[in-house]
């Protein structure tokens, strides 16, 4: 057994590992990369790994999905004997004392096939998890809980090495192995883009109201619209394209067959109000930020919430996608008091952003501005849109409770693919609160938004996702990205 000190594993999207490392080095300049074990998985060293992980858990970096301590490295032979060696190594780890009677724990194993010439694995990740969990539960009287663990035993196994560590869920940034959150497909599912919204609700601690009105920009084919309708919200779906036939006739749905810019111009002038605005249009992040900033006038100043996906261009010698992201976030911060961004497991070349508490000056500016000429005549609407004009919003549209802004806990944990908890409090032996049901047709409860701590407001400059000059990877050059007038919405719903 090889004893290590101050090592940790950092997991991010493979194309964004440079950005993840840079944002972590801004938190702790002593952090350095020792080895890239696999695409998106970095072995790093810090002067004080425990302190570094504590800082990262409080700041919630944008591109880093998961951090796990490496407290020992176990040689592996790719045989059944490996399980015994791993079990003995776990008992000697410094964090083993956390496994006390009544503590909820989980074993999370990731297998990396680095050398196929050595043949197939002698065991699966599930077999390792089961065998180790049974032995640890018998030895410590701790409770195995794959859905809501408080302590996690992390194992990353290559063909010849096992990287082991014990930590709390909060220190890992995500309660899922490597930050990989999976959902089960259902018959009602319209598109895989639904997983992005489901994951965003978990990661950012968003709890939707059981009633109210939502605006879905770039809605077709209607995946996000379906989820919002299932939560009991009335939805205005904005898109020139048709929605999925299964949505036709759904109660509470209005389909505006036109462009988002045109709809918002009308909605702002008529002082329309929404509890939630979502956007997954395929457009430049800065253009999306300007569009969402305009929509701030349609949100309640205290309870209004926005969820948007920001698309990023691929990195080239001439294009830095992180500059685009920083500019987009700065645009949002001029209109919203709370702005948070994170690259989800289901995000590809993009990040997901949540904004809340529209600033009064932004709302006043939008309401006082004259309507601009639309760029073209929108297509005919599927259903006639009737504005209600300026009015006081009925109390019942605000949902049953006020949205609070408190630091969030980490995401759900466990090996089940279709469920997971929402953890929003520090480690306690008593166990975290139960999760919401994700299967359609399950019970529904009131929801609020609990963001991840204090964020800069107003015109403060954002620190951005990295603190070092951008260094592109790879010699090839691609056509530079050129921002221009907004194109008709293309969507990923």
UniProtKB/TrEMBL annotation:
Q: Which InterPro entries match?
A: RNA_MeTrfase_FtsJ_dom, SAM-dependent_MTases_sf
Write out the ranges of the annotated region (Disordered).
361-493
Q: Which domain of life is it from?
A: Bacteria
Q: Where is the composition biased (Polar residues)?
A: 367-379
- UniProt lists compositionally biased (Low complexity) regions at 464-484
Residues in Ribosomal RNA methyltransferase FtsJ domain copies: 191-284
Pfam families on file: FtsJ
* Protein name as catalogued: Ribosomal RNA methyltransferase FtsJ domain-containing protein
């Amino acid at each position: 057994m090889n004893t290590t000190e101050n090592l940790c594993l950092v997991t991010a999207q493979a194309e964004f590992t440079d950005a993840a490392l840079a944002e972590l080095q801004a938190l702790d300049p002593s952090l350095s990369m020792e080895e890239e074990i696999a695409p998106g998985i970095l072995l790093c060293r810090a002067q004080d790994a425990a302190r570094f992980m504590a800082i990262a858990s409080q700041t919630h970096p944008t591109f880093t999905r998961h951090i796990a301590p490496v407290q020992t490295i176990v040689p592996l032979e790719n045989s059944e004997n490996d399980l015994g060696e791993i079990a003995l190594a776990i008992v000697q780890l410094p964090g083993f004392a956390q496994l006390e009677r009544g503590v909820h724990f989980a074993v999370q194993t990731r297998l990396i096939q680095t050398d196929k010439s050595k043949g197939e694995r002698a065991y699966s990740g599930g077999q390792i998890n089961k065998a180790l969990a049974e032995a640890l539960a018998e030895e410590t009287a701790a409770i195995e809980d794959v859905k809501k663990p408080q302590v996690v035993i992390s194992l990353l196994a290559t063909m010849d090495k096992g990287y082991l560590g014990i930590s709390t869920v909060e220190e890992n940034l995500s309660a899922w192995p490597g930050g990989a959150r999976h959902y089960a497909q259902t018959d009602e599912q319209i598109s895989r883009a639904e997983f992005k919204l489901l994951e965003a609700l978990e990661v950012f601690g968003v709890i939707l109201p059981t009633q109210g009105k939502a605006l879905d920009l770039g809605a077709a084919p209607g995946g996000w619209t379906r989820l919002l309708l299932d939560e009991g919200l009335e939805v205005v779906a904005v898109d020139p394209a048709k929605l999925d036939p299964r949505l036709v006739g759904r109660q509470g749905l209005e389909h505006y067959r036109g462009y988002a810019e045109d709809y918002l111009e009308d909605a702002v002038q008529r002082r329309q109000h929404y509890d939630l605005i979502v956007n997954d249009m395929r457009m430049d992040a800065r253009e999306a930020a300007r569009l969402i900033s305009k929509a701030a006038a349609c949100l309640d100043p205290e309870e209004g919430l926005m969820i948007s996906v920001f698309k990023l261009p691929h990195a080239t010698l001439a294009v830095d996608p992180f500059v685009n992201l920083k500019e987009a976030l700065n645009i949002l911060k001029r209109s919203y008091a709370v702005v948070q961004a994170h690259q989800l497991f289901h995000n590809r070349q993009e990040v997901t952003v949540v904004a809340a508490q529209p600033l009064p000056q932004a709302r006043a500016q939008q309401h006082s501005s004259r309507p601009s000429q639309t760029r073209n005549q929108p297509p005919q609407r599927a259903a006639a849109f009737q504005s209600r004009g300026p009015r006081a919003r009925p109390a019942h549209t605000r949902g049953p409770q006020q949205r609070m802004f408190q630091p969030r806990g980490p995401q759900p944990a466990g090996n089940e693919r279709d469920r997971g908890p929402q953890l929003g409090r520090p480690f306690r032996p008593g166990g975290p609160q139960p999760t919401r049901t994700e299967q359609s047709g399950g019970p529904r409860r009131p929801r609020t938004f609990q963001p991840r701590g204090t964020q800069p407001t107003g015109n403060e400059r954002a620190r951005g996702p990295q603190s070092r000059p951008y260094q592109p990877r790879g010699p090839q050059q691609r056509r530079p990205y050129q921002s221009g007038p907004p194109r008709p919405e293309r969507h990923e719903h």
